[in-house]
Specification:
It is a single chain. By secondary structure, the chain is an alpha+beta fold. It has two domains: 97 residues, Aminopeptidase, CATH 3.40.630.30; 155 residues, 3-Layer(aba) Sandwich (Aminopeptidase), CATH 3.40.630.30. Strands 1, 2, 3, 4, 5, 6, 7, 8, 9, 10, 11, 12, 13 and 14 form a 14-stranded mixed sheet that branches. Strand 1 and strand 2 form a beta hairpin. Helix 5 packs across helix 6. The longest helix is centred in the middle third of the chain and has 12 residues.
């Protein structure tokens, strides 16, 4: 699906494959830009697919990461060092990423307000809107949401194959590798069960400045909210972030009620075909903005 990037030079800037010893420099760039990613968050995304770096005289000044997902691939952590911005280098990184993708692969990404004009020029179009919520959880502010006729419990190893299937049908993508990473890295995964069948799940895992809830996959927003509510009740005193679909009004209202702040609104964009989601399952919270 993906080619190998040969090192090339243009105006003293080289673009090449990211190597393990580049991660500290990549992480330092995002720290300088006040992005929340830990070194471990970087390690996770680069474990899922090919990544590129741009360097100037051996100094890492830019990155871009690809995460293969069947007929789709997400592009994330497109970063240009602060002192090199405004030179068109973000476009070079994106063009390099697109050069290594097999023709016919549909690309998608999460665009900041600053980055969106570039992605539009490269042929990306709006797909949906994502809202970022975060707070330090105070359990006394929470309202427990329950759903009749559904049992909420912890994930067991026998659930993993079903979890992978739900991850895939909820996005119309092959996300098996992401599912395996999710199971490995999550501190807690809750599932909804009805008559012995798993009907949804939600993950709580370390990310950024604290923890993230996501992905969350369910057949309805109410079911997704019950999963989120359960995880939040186990997160008292923790800094927690969720990236939700802007159309999830019930979830947004609940988060606001529980003291969460909406701190950002970004666009998910696609170049190529849109996902053809025919299942009743939907992903209500992202894994991360970079992975989708």
């Amino acid at each position: 699906m993906f080619g190998v990037v040969m090192k090339y030079s243009s105006h003293n800037f080289n673009i090449r494959n990211l190597l393990p010893n580049d991660l500290s420099a990549a992480h330092a760039m995002t720290l300088d830009l006040k992005w929340p990613h830990r070194l471990e968050d970087w390690q996770q995304i680069v474990s899922l697919g090919p990544s590129l770096v741009m360097e100037d005289a051996g100094k890492v000044i830019g990155t871009a990461c690809l995460v293969p997902q069947g007929k789709f691939a997400s592009v994330g952590l497109v970063v240009i060092a602060n002192e090199y911005q405004g030179r068109g280098l973000g476009r070079r990184m994106m063009e390099a990423v697109m050069d290594i993708v097999t023709p016919g692969t549909n690309l998608y990404l999460t665009a900041t307000v600053m980055g969106k004009p570039l992605y539009e020029k490269l042929g990306f179009v709006d797909y949906r809107v994502i809202e970022q919520y975060q707070t330090t959880v105070n359990v006394e502010q929470l309202r427990l949401v329950t759903v009749d006729n559904l049992e909420l419990r912890d994930l067991t190893t026998t659930d993993i194959s079903v979890l992978k299937r739900l991850m895939n049908v909820a996005m119309d993508m092959n996300r098996d590798d992401i599912s395996e990473l999710m199971v490995k890295e999550s501190s807690s995964i809750k599932v909804l069960e009805s008559e012995g069948l798993v009907k949804g799940f939600a993950c709580y895992r370390p990310f950024g400045r604290g923890f993230a809830i996501g992905p969350v996959v369910a057949e309805s927003e109410t079911n997704a909210l019950a999963l989120i509510s359960e995880l939040l009740h186990c997160a008292d005193g923790q800094f927690v972030r969720l990236d939700i679909d802007a159309y999830s009004l019930e979830i947004a209202s609940y988060l606001s009620e529980c003291g969460f702040d909406k701190v950002d609104t970004v666009s998910q964009m696609v170049k190529g075909q849109l996902p053809d989601i025919s299942s009743s399952y939907r992903q209500y919270c992202l894994f991360t903005q970079a992975i989708g």
